[in-house]
Each structure stands twice: as structure tokens, then as C-alpha cells.
Amino acid sequence: MNTTISCIGSGNMGFALMKAAGRAGGVNIGFSDSDGEKAKAAAAALEGTVFGSNAEAAEKSGFIFLAVKPQILAGVLAEIAPVMRKRAVAGDVPVLVSMAAGWSIAKIKAAIIDACGPGGATDKVPIAYVPVARLMPNTPALISKGMIAYAASPEFTDKNAAELEAMLKGAGIVDRIEEKYLDAVTGLSGSGPAYVYMFIEALADGGVRAGLPRDKAIRYAAQTVFGSAAMVLETGRHPGELKDMVCSPGGTTIAGVAALEAGAFRGTVMQAVEAAWRRSKELA
Fold first, then answer.
1. Domain boundaries in the chain?
2. Which of 49, 84, 107, 220 suits 261 as a labelling partner, its CA being 20 to 30 A distant?
3. Strand order in the sheet with 63-66
4. CATH topology of domain 190-282
5. What is the pLDDT of residues 241-257, one digit of tens each?
6. pLDDT tens, 80-107?
7. Which class does domain 3-180 fall in?
8. pTM value?
């Protein structure tokens, strides 16, 4: 693979994915951002380039990553739509990769077509044929431990998929799913790190209450969560089975589990995922 990829937006998540793509090799990376200094800093860190505008980023790249907030995406799509139309007519169709929650593939395409004006969907090569992928990464991608789910339009080829997955594998686990599941992914793995950080903080607070120094309590809590997650992934065993392995009859752990259940721990976590899922659907 030897292609140019652009990242419109140079925030933490966009930078993390571009960093992973750079480690994969075979790509030239460029950034565009309304904050020019931020784009320059990101490009310098990855030995990439800076595009003078979003339109230039769309014109010169095989993959265009849209790493902007949902409320900004409409303006970005309007800016790059003429370039997308021109490239589609020329048979040089790039791949769009969006990270904006709530923006469906159909909504992204419709926004581009509307921005193209009359004839936008009826040119020799319709703009509607542009391959689009939607990503839902999470913040552990910043340290190559992310969970990155993606869905793609019918025009997204096996070659496109292989290239995208090769770019992103350095950021963590990459998994393709049907688009209808992405709101649920947002509620679970997209928002999930915040829940886990709260759990780690609560574990550490419990340790401090029991007499541990704060620094050790945080370290022990974080390593316990990290190791427990690794047990699930590496053994393939159900979390309930692994939990039972720790719970000796009449022991300390089952007493702690009983306290969690008394506080509706599992039900509360399920409600958190559901609340984030519903909010993601509201953004559509």
C-alpha cells in the first residue's frame, strides 16, 4: 500500500489514528484544521504535511478522514463537496472515513449531494457512489489499545477494507460490523472508557478508605482492571466464569460482590450504556 491519507481535524482521536497509520507504513499523511498551528504541530509530529484547506485535503488524498465534531461535519462536507464531485466525474473516487457520532452513511452522502447542487447525483459518475466508512474508535487508541468498530457503504470494496484495517491496526482491535449496531457500539466501547475510569477511581477510593496510600491504590486498581480485561480476551472464557473463579465460598470476594449487587452495580452499568446509546441515536 502506498497512498496519501488526509485527516480533516487534528484532535486527539484523529491524531491517534494517523499515528497508527504512520506506523503501518506505506502512507503519506496530511492534516487540515481551522486551527492552522494545531495542524502544523500534528504534521510535524508525524513527519506529515499540512494542507492549506479542507478542499485541498480532499483533492490530494486516497482516504479522507473526517475527524471533526458532529456539529461541524455539515460545514466540512459542504466545503469538500465540489472536489468530491469533480473527482467522481473523473473516475478518481476517494474513500471518506467519518468519526462523527450520529452521522449515518446515508446522511453523509445526502449532505454531499445537496452541497453539489443540481446534477450532484446525476453526473457521469454519481457522487452517491463514493465509498464511505463510519468509525467508532475510543480513547485507548491513543496508546494503541483501542477498540475501533467500523461500518461501510456498499461501494466500499474488499481492497478498501484491507487498506483501512491495515492503517488502523496499530491503534488497537479493528472490527467491521453492520451500521445498525454503531449506536450501540458508541454506548459501549465509545463511551465505555469513561465508565471504566470511574470504576478504577472508585476501586482506588475503596483502597484508600481501607488504608492504602493513594498512589498505590490507583496503581493496584488500574492493574487489576487491565489484568482482568486481558483474562477475558486471552482465555476466551465468559466473564461470569472468571468471576466465579475468584469467589470462594464464604470468602472476601463474594462479600464484595454482594455489596455491588446491593447497589445495583450491573443494572446501573447497563443503564449507562443504554443512556449513551439513546443519546447517540438522538444525534442522528
1. 3-180, 190-282
2. 220
3. 49-50, 27-32, 3-8, 63-66, 95-98, 132-136, 146-152, 172-176
4. ProC C-terminal domain-like fold (1.10.3730)
5. 999 999 999 999 999 99
6. 999 988 888 888 889 999 999 889 999 9
7. alpha beta
8. 0.90
